Amino acid sequence: MAASSPGEWRLSFRMCSSNRYTCVVDGDTIWLEGQNLRLESYDTPEPYNDICGGQTEVALAHRASARLLELLNGNSFSVETHGVDRYDRTLATIRIGGQDVGDILISEGLARRWPNGREFWC
User: Fold this and answer.
1) Name one Pfam family in it (predicted).
2) Confidence band (pLDDT; 50, 70, 90) for 5?
């Protein structure tokens, strides 16, 4: 990772394809220099066709993913890790200017609090 100041990083992200090294999978999952990170405390819609919210959920998922990509590419950020989930992804919190990116996405209507938020896209 490229450090921009002590404890902060500045990288160029893209949307993930088959080469997953530093990229955004969706609004709550990224790859950071080869490490799969599931961002904690919030959840975003899934970008698949067979989910509960149909095309509305897919569209919201794409907006959440694009916004996370924009936030990561436009700012320095810090990463805190907290173990792994059942899919062997590292659980993490990303902060921009001290604010959790999940809180930013929630405030913009692109995500919900996890695990106790209302799944409004279904």
Assistant:
1) SNase
2) low
